C-alpha cells in the first residue's frame, strides 16, 4: 500500500516540476521577446536622435548662412546708397534705368560741367607735377600697394571690432542674469588660461633647467671620451712597447667605461627626444596663442574691462532703483495733485452752480483772514514761548532762593527774614512774579509780538487780566471755561505733555510754608485760567464752528476750513 501511495505522489511531484519548468521556459521566452522589442525601440530612438542631430546641424548652418546673407545684404545696400549719391552728384535721377547695351552720356548741366572742369584742372596739375623717373614711379606704386594692404588689414580689424562691439551691445541689452553668466564664463576662461600659462611656464623653466643639465652632462661625456681616447692611444703604445700583461686590465677598464658611456648615451638620447617633444609642444602652444590673440596684456585688459563693466552694472542698478523710487514718488504726487485738481474743479463747478460771486469773494476774504490769523498765532506763539522761558528762569531763581532760605531756617521753625515770606496781597503787581492782576495790567508789560489788542465777541478780556473779567462777567467766564475744557480735553487726547515748569506744578513743588497759604481762591482760579489760556495759544480755532487745531497741523486745518466755509 505504501508503494502504491508513494507512486501517485511522485508522479504528481514530477508533473508539478515539469509544469513549473514549462512556465519558467515561457517566461524566459517572453523576456527574450521583450528584450528584442526594447532593442528595436532603442535602435529606432538612436535613428531618430541621429535625424534630430542632422536637423539641428542643418538649422545651425542655415542660421549661419542667413547671418552671412544679411551681412551681404547690408554691404549691397551701402553700395547702392553710394551709387545713388554718386548719381545725384553727377546730376542723374535715381529713377533712370539703362539697358545692357545702352551708354549714358551726361547732359550739359552746369554742376556736371563745373565738376568736370575742376577734375580736369586737378589732373593737369598732377601731370605737370608728376615725376618722369621710373624708379620713383615704381616706389610710389609699391607704396600704394602697401597702403592698400594696410587698408585691407584695417578693414578686417574694423570688421572684427564691429562684430565684437555688436556682441557687447547685445550683451549689454540682455538681461542681468545673462550678463552675469557671460561675465562668469569669461572669468572662468581667463582663470583657466592663466592656469595653463602658469603650468606651461613652469614646464618650460623645468625643461630649460633639464636641458642645461643635459648639456653639461654632454660636455662632461665629451671631455671623458677625449680622455679615454688619449688613454687608448697610450694603451696601444704600451701594448707595442710594454707587453700584453698590463693591457688586459686596461681593456677591462675600458670595456666598463664603454658600457657606462653607452648607458649615458642612451639616457641622453631619451632626454634629447623629450627635449624635441617639448620644443614641438612649445611651438604649438605659441601658434595657438597667436591664433587666439591671447597675450598677458590682453588678459589684463579683458579683466579690467570686465571689472569696469561689473562696476557700471552695479552703478546702473543703483541708479535704476533710485529712479524707480523717485518715479513712484512722482507718480504718487501726480495722483495726489490730480485728485486735488479734480476736487478743486468739482468745488469750482459747485461754486458756479450754487453760489454767487459775492459769496465766493466772502469765502476768499475769510480764507485770507484765517491765513493772517494763523500767521499771527504762530508769531504770538514764538514770542510767548520766549516769555515763558524767561518766566521759567525767574521761577527757577525763586526756587533757588526758597531752598536757600529753607536751609538757613533755624530749628524753632522761624526764618531769619520773616518779611520775605509774609502773606502777599493778590492785588499787588509783585505777587506772582511780574504778572499784573486786578486792573494792574498795562500796555508796557504786554507781549511785543501781539501788537494791538484784538478782541472778538466771545473773548473780550485780556490774557492775564482774568480776575477783573471774572468779577465783571460770570457768564463769559463760564463760556470761556467751557472752551478751555474743550481745549484741555483735546490736548489730553493728542497726548500733549505740559512742561515741567507749569505754574501749578511749581506751586506744588515749593516747600510747605505757612506764608503761601494766604493766597485766596480767586487768585488760584485766575492762575488756572491763565495757564489754560497759555495752553490755548498752541491751538487754532475755526471762525464758524470754533473747532480747535494744533499749530503744526496746517493741512488738516486747511481741509476743515474749506469744508466748513463751503
TrEMBL record:
GO terms for biological process: mitotic cytokinesis; regulation of phosphatidylinositol 3-kinase/protein kinase B signal transduction. Gene3D superfamilies: Nemo cc2-lz domain - 1d5 darpin complex. Residues 317-407 form the NF-kappa-B essential modulator NEMO CC2-LZ domain. Pfam families: CC2-LZ (PF16516). Residues 1-16 have a biased composition (Low complexity). InterPro entries: CC2-LZ_dom, CEP55. Residues 113-196, 244-274, 299-347, 381-408 form a coiled coil. Residues 1-23, 409-430 are annotated as: Disordered. Keywords: Coiled coil. This is NF-kappa-B essential modulator NEMO CC2-LZ domain-containing protein.
Amino acid at each position: 500500500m505504501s508503494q502504491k501511495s508513494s507512486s501517485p505522489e511522485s508522479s504528481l511531484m514530477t508533473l508539478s516540476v515539469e509544469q513549473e519548468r514549462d512556465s519558467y521556459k515561457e517566461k524566459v521566452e517572453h523576456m527574450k521577446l521583450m528584450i528584442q522589442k526594447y532593442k528595436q525601440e532603442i535602435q529606432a530612438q538612436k535613428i531618430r536622435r541621429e535625424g534630430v542631430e542632422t536637423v539641428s546641424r542643418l538649422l545651425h548652418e542655415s542660421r549661419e548662412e542667413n547671418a552671412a546673407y544679411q551681412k551681404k545684404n547690408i554691404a549691397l545696400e551701402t553700395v547702392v546708397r553710394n551709387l545713388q549719391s554718386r548719381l545725384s552728384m553727377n546730376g542723374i535721377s535715381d529713377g533712370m534705368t539703362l539697358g545692357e547695351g545702352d551708354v549714358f552720356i551726361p547732359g550739359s548741366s552746369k554742376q556736371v560741367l563745373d565738376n568736370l572742369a575742376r577734375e580736369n584742372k586737378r589732373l593737369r596739375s598732377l601731370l605737370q607735377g608728376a615725376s618722369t623717373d621710373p624708379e620713383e614711379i615704381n616706389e610710389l606704386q609699391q607704396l600704394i600697394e602697401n597702403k592698400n594692404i594696410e587698408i585691407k588689414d584695417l578693414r578686417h580689424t574694423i570688421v572684427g571690432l564691429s562684430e565684437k562691439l555688436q556682441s557687447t551691445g547685445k550683451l549689454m541689452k540682455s538681461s542681468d542674469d545673462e550678463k552675469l553668466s557671460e561675465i562668469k564664463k569669461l572669468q572662468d576662461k581667463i582663470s583657466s588660461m592663466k592656469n595653463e600659462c602658469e603650468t606651461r611656464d613652469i614646464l618650460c623653466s623645468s625643461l630649460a633647467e633639464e636641458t642645461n643639465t643635459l648639456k653639461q652632462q654632454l660636455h662632461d661625456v665629451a671631455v671623458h671620451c677625449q680622455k679615454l681616447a688619449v688613454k687608448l692611444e697610450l694603451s696601444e703604445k704600451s701594448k707595442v712597447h710594454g707587453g700584453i700583461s698590463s693591457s688586459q686590465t686596461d681593456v677591462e677598464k675600458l670595456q666598463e667605461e664603454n658600457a657606462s658611456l653607452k648607458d649615458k648615451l642612451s639616457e641622453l638620447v631619451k632626454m634629447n627626444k623629450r627635449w624635441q617633444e617639448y620644443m614641438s609642444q612649445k611651438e604649438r602652444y605659441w601658434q595657438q596663442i597667436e591664433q587666439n590673440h591671447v597675450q598677458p596684456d590682453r588678459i589684463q585688459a579683458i579683466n579690467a574691462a570686465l571689472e569696469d563693466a561689473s562696476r557700471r552694472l552695479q552703478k546702473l542698478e543703483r541708479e535704476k532703483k533710485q529712479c524707480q523710487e523717485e518715479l513712484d514718488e512722482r507718480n504718487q504726487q501726480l495722483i495726489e495733485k490730480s485728485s486735488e485738481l479734480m476736487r478743486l474743479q468739482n468745488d469750482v463747478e459747485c461754486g458756479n452752480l450754487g453760489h454767487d460771486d459775492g459769496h465766493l469773494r466772502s469765502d476768499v476774504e475769510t480764507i485770507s483772514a484765517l491765513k493772517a490769523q494763523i500767521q499771527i498765532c504762530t508769531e504770538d506763539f514764538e514770542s510767548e514761548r520766549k516769555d515763558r522761558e524767561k518766566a521759567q528762569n525767574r521761577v527757577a531763581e525763586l526756587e533757588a532762593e526758597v531752598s536757600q532760605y529753607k536751609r538757613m531756617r533755624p530749628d524753632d521753625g522761624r526764618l531769619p527774614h520773616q518779611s520775605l515770606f509774609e502773606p502777599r496781597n493778590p492785588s499787588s503787581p509783585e505777587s506772582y512774579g511780574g504778572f499784573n492782576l486786578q486792573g494792574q495790567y498795562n500796555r508796557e508789560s504786554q507781549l511785543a509780538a501781539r501788537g494791538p489788542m484784538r478782541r472778538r465777541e466771545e473773548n473780550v478780556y485780556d490774557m492775564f487780566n482774568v480776575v477783573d473779567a471774572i468779577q465783571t462777567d460770570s457768564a463769559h467766564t463760564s463760556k470761556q471755561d467751557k472752551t478751555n475744557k474743550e481745549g484741555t480735553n483735546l490736548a489730553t487726547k493728542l497726548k500733549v505733555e505740559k512742561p515741567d515748569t507749569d505754574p501749578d506744578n511749581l506751586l506744588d513743588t515749593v516747600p510747605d510754608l505757612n506764608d503761601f497759604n494766604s493766597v485766596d481762591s480767586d487768585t488760584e482760579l485766575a492762575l488756572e485760567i491763565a495757564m489754560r489760556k497759555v495752553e490755548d495759544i498752541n491751538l487754532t480755532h475755526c471762525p464758524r464752528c470754533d473747532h480747535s487745531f494744533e499749530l503744526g497741523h496746517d493741512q488738516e486745518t486747511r481741509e476743515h476750513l474749506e469744508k466748513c466755509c463751503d
